[in-house]
Design a protein that fits this description.
Length: about 120
Amino acid sequence: MRTMLELSLSATPKAAPELRRELRAYDYDIRLCATELLTNVIDHVGDGTPVTVRVTAAAGDADRTRIEVRDPNTRTLPVIRAATETQEYGRGLTLVAALAERWGVDLGPDGKTVWCELAPASSC
């Protein structure tokens, strides 16, 4: 995989706009998915959690973009939830799943990586 961007940051609400600025050269879907994965860490693992965000060309397919968000928590795993019309939260992973060709979680002894792979914008 060819790394196009790698950032180490603290998962805080102000990190989301910072991440969007760093990804300004990428299309909207990539910015949205990366931000939603980061926001999940803030909401479900904890404000201030150290994360690494990596954007790469997907293995075996340079046309697809892979987004990875790594955090040190192995106990809190992402789950798609059904949000009601009036809820202001609970749609992030649903958006990622809808936009990505595939997504998943890789567990390691010292953390997890939540990732998704997106097709080129022209074929979405």
